[in-house]
């Protein structure tokens, strides 16, 4: 006996070490499969590793595997669990990392709502999602779920089973409604048969073969309550097994009845189940089997209550954790989005004609019936010609809008800056941006003022249409200087309208629960503007931060 005890102690001492080594091997194998892209094989191995040894590093690898596999709701829940575990361990860095990862996934989670109308909420209704029961408190509430196809089923006593399918994509919100279940005539007799079962168990007369077992069952049930009543039934049934199968079942039922009197509501039903189990076990031919049958029958209510309590506690903890992380990333629908940045690039001015300041200093002449007329220049009748102007450009750009969703922002974009060598751009207008992974693509409609300092090629005055024939068909004539000479360059301004294509690369995604939540972006925004006389092309690149 001592040798057996020593061997057993050695096995128990070595078991944790064996499990730990096996968990390490499974984790290493799973990571290798992940590197090869074999996620369907990798995730189960990492999950088994975590089952054997619940370490935070393994849970992090498991959540990452599920995220790559596309099971983002599963990964999100695991990141929440990881954050809670890291907080208990005092690992603030891992806790922050887990929260950031969960916050990144949370806006993209598909959410499914299971609706149960009043007409469908019959007594005993059980609704399952992919085989897992849905608590009635969750009816009508959106719940995160992995993308893909899911099965929703409903069943109730005396009703026909219903099953439906729903397919859901990333970021999508869907709802499924459980219909009123049709009555099932074939199931009408089952409740009556179930009600008769305890009476049959109590029918046999008490056996005199094992009175001590029957009394023990009654006393045990009277002192212990609901669970002990079922245990008393088991003992009574076991005593009956040693005597005779039929009389033993009766004795067990008698003991269960005594126990039920002290147990209160529900104990009698448990004792009945225990006695019925005992009868079945004894009929099979042994006290041990009878006792096992009684134990299983009686343990049902107690285990169900414990399981439900544990599930409720886990649900409450998960809900609390989700509440803490709900605002970890301010990227939900309806939130304000503000982006600001500095830009640099080139501005190409192709405004070939326009007016400039101090035109009243110049005059021009043309033929009229009375002879030659000398007219003064102004912005209405005199225009200058300009060479193209190209120069470096520095600017600031901003976006203010609304997040219609995680991947869609609508607002107003503004771009304004200065061209070295003279010139400016000040435009703005509506803008729409969509996110595709790490890249934002946008379109903006712009309008505003542009100016360029360019070399003057000529200044011409307009000849009124009624005198064109007297001036050999010319509509314009060269301007002569009345005071001073023409400047070499001048600033020409015009109103312009056009648009830009905005391409932004997310350099760093920085979600948090503070106002600094957002992303650092590298933007390229080729811009085309049409002026009243010519065009303006701008090619800015900017570094900006988008708060959301």
Which terms summarize this structure?
548 residues; alpha+beta; twelve-stranded antiparallel sheet; four-stranded antiparallel sheet; elongated
In words, what does this structure look like?
- The protein is of the alpha+beta class.
- The protein has 11 helices and 22 strands.
- The protein has helices at residues 2-35, 39-52, 56-69, 72-89, 92-105, 190-202, 211-224, 226-243, 245-263, 267-284, 287-325, and strands at residues 111-115, 126-129, 132-133, 142-144, 148-155, 162-168, 173-177, 336-350, 353-354, 362-368, 371-376, 382-386, 389-405, 408-419, 423-436, 439-462, 476-478, 480-481, 489-510, 518-524, 527-531, 534-547.
- It is elongated.
Write the topology of this structure.
Blueprint: H1 2-35, H2 39-52, H3 56-69, H4 72-89, H5 92-105, E1 111-115, E2 126-129, E3 132-133, E4 142-144, E5 148-155, E6 162-168, E7 173-177, H6 190-202, H7 211-224, H8 226-243, H9 245-263, H10 267-284, H11 287-325, E8 336-350, E9 353-354, E10 362-368, E11 371-376, E12 382-386, E13 389-405, E14 408-419, E15 423-436, E16 439-462, E17 476-478, E18 480-481, E19 489-510, E20 518-524, E21 527-531, E22 534-547
Parallel strand pairs: 1-7
Antiparallel strand pairs: 1-4, 2-3, 2-5, 5-6, 8-13, 8-22, 9-12, 10-11, 10-18, 12-16, 13-14, 14-15, 15-16, 16-17, 16-19, 19-20, 19-21, 20-22, 21-22
Helix pairs in contact: 1-2, 2-3, 3-4, 4-5, 4-11, 6-10, 7-8, 7-9, 8-9, 8-10, 8-11, 9-10, 10-11
